[in-house]
Design a protein that fits this description.
The chain is an alpha/beta fold and 243 residues long. The chain has a single domain, classed as Aminopeptidase. Helix content is 37%, strand content 23%. The protein is built from 7 helices and 9 strands. Strands 1, 2, 3, 4, 5, 6, 7, 8 and 9 form a 9-stranded mixed β-sheet that branches. Strand 3, helix 2 and strand 4 form a beta-alpha-beta unit. Helix 2 crosses helix 7 and helix 5 packs across helix 7. The longest helix has 19 residues. InterPro entries: AstE_AspA_cat, N-alpha-Ac-DABA_deacetylase. It comes from Anaeroselena agilis. It holds the Pfam family AstE_AspA_cat. This is Succinylglutamate desuccinylase/aspartoacylase family protein. Its cofactor is Zn(2+).
Length: 243
């Protein structure tokens, strides 16, 4: 069956429009720490959310999940994704490089500071530029919190404000409804670690902010899927329509 020309032209237009809706650029361009940022805007105006992965190079599931989130089609609001915040450490497969420092302790950062502080300052400037109201930082821990309470594995750490607490309740219910094994179910954690992106976003900027910690004792694809499921729940609650 031949497809009418008008239909083909419409399909081409829609495909081009969808492609044009995503902007890609570098954070800290021209430096050794440059890393890709993806910004997708929906046709309908709405809130903006920032999703980060790869802050620690030995936690690849968050980066893999963020890469999947980059491919979400956004119909309402704005979705900003940094899949590989600490790109050099991810390439080396280690938590971070000594010359960079721990980005997860560097917020709010300094534009003329250490590499970790420069990256943190660039992330904060990005959040300010797009008026982000939701920040999600994807991490991993060594084991399950339910087996070892010194580990944060399978925990959702939420910022110390009412909006974050309310959203965390729903997100935990959503993800645990998809998990059958009790040890793999998520629990509420303490608030994000001081100096982290989620801590600063919640405590200082007043945003809804979260650190998601999966357990490294699961297959990579499984823990990445858990990250993506929690991101979906939080985006939906914030009013960013993305699938």
């Amino acid at each position: 069956m031949r497809i009418p020309l008008i239909v083909l032209l419409l399909l081409v237009f829609l495909t081009s429009a969808a492609a044009a809706a995503q902007e890609q650029f570098l954070l800290l361009p021209g430096t050794p720490y440059a890393t890709e940022v993806y910004v997708s805007r929906g046709a309908a105006p709405g809130p903006a959310a920032l999703v980060m992965g790869g802050v620690h190079g030995n936690e690849p599931a968050g980066s893999l999940a963020a890469e999947q989130v980059c491919r979400f089609a956004v119909s309402r609001g704005t979705l900003i994704v940094i899949p590989r915040v600490n790109k050099l450490a991810l390439s080396a497969g280690i938590r971070t490089l000594p010359e960079i420092g721990d980005i997860n302790r560097a917020y709010p950062g300094r534009a003329d500071g250490t590499p970790a502080e420069r990256i943190a300052a660039a992330v904060e400037a990005l959040a300010a530029k797009y008026r982000v109201s939701l920040l999600i930082d994807l991490h991993e821990a060594r084991t399950f919190h339910r087996l070892d309470h010194t580990s944060l594995g399978q925990m959702l750490l939420f910022a110390a404000n009412d909006r974050s607490a309310e959203m965390a309740l729903t997100a935990i219910d959503d993800i645990n409804g998809l998990i059958t094994e009790p040890v793999k179910k998520f629990a509420f954690g303490a608030h994000p670690i001081p100096g982290s992106a989620a801590y600063h976003a919640g405590a200082v900027l007043g945003l809804a902010a979260f650190t998601v910690e999966t357990s490294g004792r699961q297959p990579l694809e499984e823990r990445a899927a858990q990250h993506v499921a929690i991101v979906r729940s939080l985006l939906r609650q914030e009013g960013v329509d993305a699938e």
